[in-house]
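re: ur question from earlier - yeah i can do the single chain one, its not a big deal. heres the input i used so u can compare w yours
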Amino acid sequence: MSIAQNPLSVEVTLPREDVALVTVEGHLDLDTATEFQAHLANQLHHGRRHFLLDLSAVPFMDSSGMNIILRVYQEARELPGSVHVIDPTPAVRRVLDLTGVSITVPISDKVDDALALIDRSQQSPETP
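and the output i got, formated as tokens:
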């Protein structure tokens, strides 16, 4: 199957100054993962700390996509920031669950739910 048959579409919007909503459409695999990673790296470069990854239009994701999600998760945590997966398709959710990624990276049904999690995490001060 060629890339032309499964193009990746990535759209980035900013619900808040430090939050990037990355809406992905298409197969997230070895052929398309580099493009996905470039969009995330660009948002990190521009100071985004929180990433909402809308995977509701991703019918297939392999380990390449999963590794990029984990990599941006690690980078965001160092800022400190966060990564949230929004409304993954059943096939993608299964991959996230089977690999344990869903234990580490929060999964929300809606963007507003993830934004509420970000707000709660910023309101709870860490105790020394």
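The radius of gyration is 14 Å. not sure if urs matches, ping me
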